[in-house]
């Protein structure tokens, strides 16, 4: 057998084919990979009201590989932010293929669970939010006592200028940043808000469809009685291709201690100011924090793409042209914005895809090793 050349691709095209060009293909690839898995497994498709741009049926798939009574579980979530599902789904399909073909074996006593396409509408329509303009990762709050984000209120009209004067709006944002600093500016813009339904990072006025489906998953298994590694797959923040492990467990909590024990000093903490992210309201994390027991943790595996300035501008343009509700998929203005948004959250390039899969494999392996050693 000939040795590979040093110049050969680290991961061949057959492996990178785990990434799909659209939601329907991603769901098909996921389902096909499930069919090739060894038993036992649990597989359920959760319905989602609405349809894709071509009338496609939407759904969220829930998978459990192994003994449903296993006391140690690795759980992977994809597409909490819909457009970020291109990467998240690819990671899930890659792991399923490797389990199905025997390349990797799940240790005895450990189960692997997945939720594919938490926000299928956003995935299908290539948007970060759902059909109501809700950011699912700001939706997990008690709506009887939601917090006000005064910073967002101060810059709301500058983030999405009603008059379309982007230059004047940018000047307002720069003035706010100069007065309050970059950290406060990011908290104001992206920390979450509940007053402006057409605005950025809107948490909604009640539980979203995606939240209700995730709550079904929370109730389906007795997570508090197990040791669990939750890995929530995201893109858009940080250096190109780097997978940052972000932990939003409270300081001094058992969850943060567990994350650092399993993943080491690579774990970053928004509350400490060590992360590319900032503290936020209504994260999916918080629902899991409330039920996870000892020797469990929730981490966000966040893959960097392009600078944060471009991220915010792209999101502003997306919200400016896409008010909540039906719209024309083929409209040229919306199509151009959509492609810029897609590229920011999913650079469909082999180099980036390779970095994503290799880091994901490493993180899953570290989580599994931590669970086995616990």
From the N-terminal CA to the C-terminal CA, the straight-line distance is 41 Å
> The CATH topology, please?
Aminopeptidase
Shape designation? globular
CATH architecture: 3-Layer(aba) Sandwich
Name the CATH class: Alpha Beta
Number of domains: 1
- Radius of gyration over C-alpha positions, nearest whole angstrom: 20 Å
What composes the largest sheet? 8 strands, mixed
- Give the SSE string: HHEEEHEHHHHHEEHEHEHHH
Biggest sheet: strands side by side, in what order? Answer: 1-2-4-3-5-8-6-7
Structural class: alpha/beta
The fraction of residues assigned to DSSP E strands is: 15-25%
Q: Note poorly predicted spans.
A: none
Mean pLDDT: 95
- Helix percent reads 40-55%
Beta-strand segment tally: 8
Number of helices: 13
């Amino acid at each position: 057998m000939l040795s590979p050349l040093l110049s050969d691709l680290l991961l061949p095209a057959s492996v990178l084919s785990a990434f799909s060009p659209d939601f329907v293909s991603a769901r098909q690839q996921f389902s096909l990979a499930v069919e090739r898995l060894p038993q036992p497994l649990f597989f359920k498709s959760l319905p989602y009201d609405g349809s894709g741009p071509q009338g496609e049926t939407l759904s969220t798939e829930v998978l459990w590989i192994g003994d449903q009574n296993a006391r140690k579980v690795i759980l992977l979530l994809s597409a909490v932010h819909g457009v970020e599902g291109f990467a998240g789904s690819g990671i899930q399909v890659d792991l399923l293929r490797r389990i199905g073909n025997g390349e990797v074996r799940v240790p005895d006593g450990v189960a692997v669970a997945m939720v594919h396409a938490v926000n299928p509408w956003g995935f299908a329509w290539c948007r970060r939010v759902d059909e109501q303009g809700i950011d699912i990762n700001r939706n997990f709050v008690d709506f009887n006592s939601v917090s006000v984000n005064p910073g967002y209120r101060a810059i709301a009209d500058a983030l999405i200028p009603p008059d379309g004067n982007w230059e004047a709006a940018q000047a307002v944002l720069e003035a706010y940043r100069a007065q309050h600093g970059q950290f406060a500016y990011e908290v104001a813009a992206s920390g979450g808000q509940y007053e402006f339904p057409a605005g950025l990072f809107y948490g909604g006025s009640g539980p979203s469809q995606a939240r209700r489906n995730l709550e079904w998953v929370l109730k389906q298994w007795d997570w508090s009685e197990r040791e669990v590694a939750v890995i929530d797959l995201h893109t858009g923040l940080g250096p190109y291709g780097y997978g940052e492990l972000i932990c939003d467990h409270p300081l001094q909590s058992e969850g943060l201690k567990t994350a650092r024990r399993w993943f080491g000093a690579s774990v970053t903490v928004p509350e400490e100011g060590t992360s590319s992210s900032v503290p936020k309201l209504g994260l999916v994390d918080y629902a899991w924090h409330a039920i996870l027991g000892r020797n469990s943790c929730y981490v966000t595996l966040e893959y960097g793409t392009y600078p944060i300035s471009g991220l915010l501008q792209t999101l502003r343009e997306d919200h400016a042209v896409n008010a909540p509700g039906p719209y024309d998929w083929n409209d040229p203005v919306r199509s151009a914005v959509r492609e810029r948004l897609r590229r920011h959250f999913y650079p469909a390039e082999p180099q980036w895809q390779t970095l994503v899969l290799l880091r994901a494999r490493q993180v899953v392996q570290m989580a599994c090793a931590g669970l086995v050693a616990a």
